[in-house]
Design a protein that fits this description.
The complex is a heterodimer of chains A (299) and B (273). Helix content of chain A is 34%, strand content 26%. Chain A has helices at residues 43-50, 71-76, 92-102, 110-116, 132-143, 162-177, 189-195, 213-220, 235-241, 262-270, 286-296, and strands at residues 5-14, 17-27, 32-36, 58-63, 77-80, 150-154, 181-185, 198-203, 206-211, 224-230, 246-247, 253-257, 276-282. In chain A, the strands form three sheets. Chain A has a six-stranded mixed beta sheet with strand order 5-6-7-3-8-9, sandwiched between helices. In chain A, helix 3 (92-102) crosses helix 4 and helix 8 packs across helix 11. The two termini of chain A are 39 Å apart. Chain B has one domain (2-269). Helices cover 81% and strands 0% of the residues of chain B. The longest helix of chain B is centred in the middle third of the chain and has 34 residues, at 97-130. Chain B is globular. In chain B, 47% of the residues are buried. The chains are: A alpha/beta (299), B mainly alpha (273). Chain A binds chain B through residues 48, 51-54, 71, 74-75, 77-81, 83-87, 89-90, 94-95, 98-99, 101-104, 107, 126, 139, 142, and chain B through 2-3, 5-7, 9-10, 13-14, 17-18, 84-86, 88-89, 91-95, 272-273.
């Protein structure tokens, strides 16, 4: 199968500011890709270029085999803008009916779509009375119209409570399983961690890292933290046996080591036998990796 | 076509909820009835039926009120979408910008037509009730309705243009009021000054007719006044009507909505969400 989205050497300038510089990426069918970056890193700009909403200065962008914003591309791409907004005078159902009609679909399916995002009970109320989370769900409902091949979701889970977020990602899993490609940006790194196939980190318009969480962890070579809980009364001898260990406020011992030293260190800890009551291995979080790439290469 | 109709249906619903339908209709009915009642006084002397008098009065009213209503309905069309943040999503849908404009135009024209038919209709009924001979002037009432719709379409298109250019509803509202003042009030004042200073010279005979045709509001007034037998009652700038062929003012009225729509399309295409 051909790539759903292919970007090569994309460049975009606003006056003298380079919003995007030499960005390349490929999104295959069924792939879920997370786009991370600070505010102003170029995430929304890149999404708007993919959607054909704004022009770009250099490079090539191919969306579902066509130019971004072409009729063919628009027919196959769904978009969820950051802070999805709708006309307050329309009800959720009327708004979705309108979007269905614009995509040439049966407007009668509006109720069913709203049920899928958990808004069935409020579909006859005006959007003006909705909470932010409910508006976000109207936004999600409209992305489900007409089996899109590519979903571009800008901060899709902002304003959603934890349970809705889980439901939302389950919905995405289903779409990806059916072959849809998903490109989403997020600030909530922990939820992206488990739910995407690839992670892209943008900093000041440049792509500074791309890969799976595992490969990014290796590449960043950030220290692993081990937390050792000593058995009762064994705190002091254990600390003496593990040089470099720092006692934490809750009575545990904290050790930092590189990826390469992790297994030897583990062997040393387990060799302490009865003195060790428990052990936690904490890999560098996505936050750490993000900070590493976001700051490290930008200068 | 379905996309245009879907857009129109949504827009009509929004206008209905925002009470625009009610406001436009109430305004037209109220002013038409006031004019119909006020026009009752001179009937006996002039020897024309009541409806002809009413239509002449309504024409003068429409020149002001129809462009105003059209601009009030249209100034928010694009700028409002930009401000609410609904435009980027809409533009990612497989619907062209022209289709969006046509959908909005269709809805706003329908509202305007409804208000006009009810308003003029009320005045017409009042004329019939007091003077059965009014039946002979029925064609002029019909002519007033469809020319008013064309006049409205022209100003709706101009309103969309301003809305696209300013991208902020408050700015668009200001521009719309400026445009209204320019086309409906200042333009005629300028022409009047021209006629007075030129006193029958080349400017009056050559420039004035072109200038009148170039303004949709003046073309509307010319067409209705010269088509009806009511020129005498209206007087004023209508007196110039006799010098200009009917088809010219009709052509201006028909061409303006299309030209305004093209302008709006060109301006809307330049809007980057």
């Amino acid at each position: 199968m051909t790539s759903t989205l292919k970007i090569s050497h994309l460049t975009k300038r606003y006056e003298s500011v380079e919003a995007l510089r030499d960005v390349s990426l490929t999104l295959e069918p069924g792939m879920r890709m997370a786009l991370l970056g600070h505010n102003g890193a170029g995430k929304s700009t890149m999404m708007k270029i993919i959607l054909g909403l704004i022009p770009f200065d250099g490079g090539e962008v191919s969306v579902c085999g066509g130019a971004p914003g072409s009729a063919a591309a628009r027919a196959q791409v769904a978009y969820l803008p950051e802070n999805a907004a709708f006309h307050p005078a329309l009800t959720g159902e009327e708004q979705i009916r309108h979007y269905l009609a614009l995509r040439g679909e049966d407007a009668g399916r509006a109720g069913e779509l709203l049920e899928r995002v958990g808004l069935g009970h409020a579909k006859r109320r005006r959007i003006g009375t909705y909470s932010k989370g409910m508006r976000q769900r109207v936004g999600l409902a409209q992305t489900l119209i007409g089996r899109p091949r590519l979903l571009v979701l800008d901060e899709p889970t902002s304003g959603l409570d934890p349970v809705s977020r889980r439901d939302f990602y389950a919905l995405l899993d289903g779409l990806a399983a059916e072959g849809a490609s998903i490109l989403l940006s997020s600030h909530a790194l922990t939820e992206v961690e488990a739910r995407t196939d690839r992670i892209l980190i943008l900093a000041r318009g440049r792509l500074v890292a791309e890969g799976t969480l595992l490969s990014l962890r290796h590449e960043a070579a950030l220290p692993v933290t081990l937390l050792v809980t000593p058995a009762a009364g064994a705190a002091e001898p254990l600390a003496a046996a593990l040089p470099g260990a720092e006692p934490t406020a809750d009575g545990r011992l904290r050790l930092d080591c590189t990826q390469a030293d992790k297994l030897p260190l583990l062997a040393r800890i387990t060799a302490q036998g009865e003195r060790v009551a428990d052990l936690d291995v904490i890999p560098p979080s996505l936050e750490d990796i993000y900070t590493h790439f976001g700051h490290g290469e930008a200068a | 076509m379905n996309r245009i109709l879907a857009t129109a249906a949504s827009e009509f619903r929004i206008a209905f909820r925002n009470r625009w339908v009610l406001i436009a209709t109430a305004l037209m009915v109220l002013f038409s009835l006031v004019l119909a009642a006020a026009g009752a006084a001179p009937t006996g002397d002039v020897g024309v039926d009541r409806l002809s008098i009413t239509v002449a009065s309504l024409t003068s009213l429409a020149v002001y009120l129809v462009p105003l209503l059209a601009l009030l309905m249209s100034f928010d069309a694009i700028a409002g979408e930009v401000e609410r943040g609904t435009l980027p999503l809409l533009l990612t849908y497989p619907v062209s910008r022209l289709q969006i404009l046509l959908g909005k135009l269709l809805a706003h024209l329908a509202i305007l037509a409804l208000a006009l038919v009810l308003g003029y209709g009320a005045a017409g009924v009042m004329a019939f009730v007091t003077d059965p001979a009014s039946i002979t002037a029925l064609p002029s009432l019909w002519r007033l309705i469809w020319t008013s719709v064309l006049l409205g379409a022209a100003f709706l298109g101009l309103g969309y243009t301003l809305s696209s250019l300013s991208r902020r509803p408050s700015g668009a509202a200001g521009l719309a009021m400026g445009l209204w003042l320019l086309f409906v009030v200042l333009y005629d004042l300028g022409l009047l000054a021209l006629v007075v200073t030129d006193s029958g010279g080349a400017l009056t005979t050559h420039v004035l007719p072109v200038a009148l045709l170039a303004n949709p509001a003046d073309a509307f007034r010319l067409f209705n006044l010269s088509a009806a037998s009511a020129v005498a009652e209206a007087g004023g700038i209508g007196g110039a009507a006799s010098a200009i062929a009917l088809w010219k003012s009709a052509a201006s009225l028909v061409l303006w909505p299309g030209a305004a729509l093209l302008l709006a399309w060109a301006a809307f295409r330049k809007v980057t969400p």
